[in-house]
């Protein structure tokens, strides 16, 4: 039997060049249809790469030792095999995607149908993927094929179908960059619906009403610090992009871990946070092809900046665990004092909502800082930008806040609800959502109906947040900052999805709203604002980047006491 096989191998290796080329070409076509197409291989790029090169090497060795060719001829034959194989795979992929794919009837740029490199090329030019998608919708309509298996759907009905309860979609391979193993990944990377639903409960407890009451005075202390920095710069320009970012991270350090990054005090970025920001550009560009981002992030040293942040979070988590163990022993009935302690508590008590493994716990510790900081800071900066450019709205905001606190800042408390403050925040999140792109989800095998359109199973679909929130069909004066429009609108019924909806919705929403309300109302009560240089105001709009969250350019504002 063994000798029969080895004889067959030798015959195969010694076959004519024409036969070898044909078989290799066919093998390429077959492997596309039997391996690459039916299975989700996005997370296995390195394994495939090494298998490929091992096969190449084995082929050369086989050609020399089994078939008796010289080394040069063996190399030439191996190159012929791989070239023919590659041609088979690539031709099969391109022909299938262009002419036979179930999404072929949906419009979109021809190159986008063939490969995600189309989106990557666009993203690399301006790092504004959300505008690239908006332009595609203007050209091709509501449903656009933005990638070989990706559709962007700019319709309010798609929000319900894709994101809201009952959840019919799962998260796309984009979320599997770390792993698909639920014991090793964060809540945000978890694609399994049941596991995700369970884990979300621990986070919701960490941001429940009782927890928010514990965090509020600590946020207030950070706001006092931010306001003191603004006072130091009174009458002179201060870069609010930078200071809002310092504020966002300082708050999350405190409320997340009871730790202080001291960024507001020092006026500089903590090295761990610098690491996060260094990685953002790569996420913005490479995130368009998730398999490539997953591959590159596994190269040793490629994510060095991010590792600094990972190490910091890991240390904080370990220190925190000791503290939580002591606190639990001493104050049995007391609620945890920060978000990570809620997760540690669930973990220690073996609660079903706890992160399901040590690595998952560590990933959640990182998620906590990352999701809660830049998102909130961007809203604060963007709101101040809009208010500075729209003095009438700022005046209206000041009137609304003064009505509540006629004796000024000494009167100020967080508890009082001021509708106009919320309108300003909602309108800012409409025009400049902190996560501007569509959040990709996978259609279940049986497919999904969106109005009269059938979306085949396995399609990656998303509602483009920025595009739908600026679509003139759904918003009058869609590009105008007009907080008053919210007097007659509800965030639930309008196509407004900055925190997304349903099972995937942001658990930090109420906390973020609390932070932003506090900052905006305090500033309105104490200061007038102006953009330091008008051309900088215009550049602020132009130079923003889509790095999954928005990365904002500097915004120099002048605050003058009222
Ligand atoms: C205005 C500020 C914020 C905005 C616009 C925002 C937006 C979002 C969005 C769009 C998502 C969905 C992401 C996805 O599915 O890929 C999300 C998820 C999440 N956000 Fe926020 N967020 C904000 C503030 C916060 C804060 C302060 C926290 C607190 C730590 C937080 C924690 C989270 C977490 C843990 C998730 C993952 C939820 C899940 O996987 O189910 N966010 N956020």
UniProtKB/TrEMBL annotation:
Q: Cross-referenced InterPro entries, in alphabetical order? A: Cyt_P450 (IPR001128), Cyt_P450_E_grp-I (IPR002401), Cyt_P450_sf (IPR036396), Cytochrome_P450_monoxygenase (IPR050121)
Is the keyword Heme assigned to this protein? yes
One family name in Pfam for this protein: p450
Which residues does heme bind? 506
The portions of this protein that span the membrane are 43-66, 78-99
Q: Signal peptide: which range, if any?
A: none
Q: Which domain of life is it from?
A: Eukaryota
Q: Which keywords has UniProt assigned to this entry? A: Heme, Iron, Membrane, Metal-binding, Transmembrane, Transmembrane helix
Please give the PANTHER family that the UniProt record associates with this protein.
Answer: CYTOCHROME P450 (PTHR24305), P450, PUTATIVE (EUROFUNG)-RELATED (PTHR24305:SF78)
What protein does this entry describe?
A: Cytochrome P450
Phylogenetic lineage: Eukaryota, Fungi, Dikarya, Ascomycota, Pezizomycotina
């Amino acid at each position: 039997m063994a000798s029969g096989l080895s004889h067959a191998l030798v015959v195969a290796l010694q076959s004519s060049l024409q036969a070898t080329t044909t078989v290799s070409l066919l093998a390429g076509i077959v492997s596309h249809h039997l391996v690459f197409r039916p299975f989700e291989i996005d997370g296995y790029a390195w394994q495939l790469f090494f298998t490929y090169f091992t096969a190449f090497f084995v082929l050369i060795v086989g050609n020399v030792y089994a078939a008796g060719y010289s080394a040069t001829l063996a190399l030439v034959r191996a190159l012929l095999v791989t070239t023919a194989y590659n041609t088979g795979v690539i031709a099969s992929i391109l022909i299938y995607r262009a002419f036979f794919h179930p999404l072929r009837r949906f419009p979109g740029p021809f190159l986008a149908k063939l490969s995600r490199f189309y989106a990557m090329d666009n993203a690399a030019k301006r790092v504004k993927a959300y505008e690239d998608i908006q332009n595609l919708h203007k050209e091709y309509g509501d449903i656009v094929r933005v990638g070989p298996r990706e559709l962007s759907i700019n319709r309010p009905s798609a929000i319900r179908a894709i994101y809201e309860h009952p959840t019919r979609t799962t998260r796309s391979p984009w979320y599997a960059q770390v792993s698909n193993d639920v014991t090793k990944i964060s809540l945000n990377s978890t694609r399994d619906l049941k596991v995700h639903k369970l884990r979300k409960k621990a986070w919701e407890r960490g941001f429940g009403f009782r927890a928010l009451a514990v965090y509020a005075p600590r946020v207030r202390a950070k706001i006092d610090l931010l306001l003191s920095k603004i006072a130091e710069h009174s009458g002179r320009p201060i870069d609010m992009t930078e200071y809002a970012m310092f504020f966002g991270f300082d708050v999350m350090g405190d409320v997340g871990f009871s730790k202080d990054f001291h960024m507001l005090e020092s006026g500089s970025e903590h090295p761990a946070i610098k690491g996060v920001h260094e990685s953002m550009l790569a996420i913005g560009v490479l995130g368009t092809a998730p398999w490539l981002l997953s591959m590159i992030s596994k190269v040793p040293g490629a994510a060095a900046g991010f590792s600094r942040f990972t190490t910091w979070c890991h240390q904080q988590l370990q220190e925190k665990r000791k503290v939580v163990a002591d606190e639990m022993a001493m104050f049995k009935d007391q609620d945890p004092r920060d978000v990570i302690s809620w997760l540690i508590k669930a973990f220690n008590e073996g609660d079903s909502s706890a992160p399901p493994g040590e690595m998952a716990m560590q990933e959640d510790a990182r998620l906590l800082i990352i999701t809660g900081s830049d998102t909130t800071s961007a809203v604060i900066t963007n709101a101040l930008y809009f208010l500075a450019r729209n003095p009438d709205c700022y005046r209206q905001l000041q009137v609304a806040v003064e009505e509540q606190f006629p004796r000024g800042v000494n009167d100020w408390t967080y508890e009082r609800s001021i509708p106009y403050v919320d309108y300003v925040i909602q309108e800012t999140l409409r025009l400049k959502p902190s996560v501007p792109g569509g959040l990709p989800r996978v259609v279940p095998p049986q497919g999904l109906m969106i109005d009269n359109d059938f979306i085949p199973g396995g399609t990656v679909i998303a509602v483009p947040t920025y595009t739908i929130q600026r679509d003139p069909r759904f918003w009058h004066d869609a590009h105008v900052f007009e907080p008053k429009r919210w007097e007659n609108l509800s965030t639930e019924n309008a196509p407004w999805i900055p925190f997304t909806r349903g099972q995937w919705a942001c658990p930090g929403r109420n906390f973020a709203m609390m932070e932003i309300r506090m900052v905006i109302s305090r500033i309105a009560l104490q200061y007038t604002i102006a953009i330091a240089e008008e051309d900088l105001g215009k550049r602020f709009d132009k130079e923003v980047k889509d790095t999954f969250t928005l990365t904002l350019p500097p915004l120099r504002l002048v605050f003058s006491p009222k």
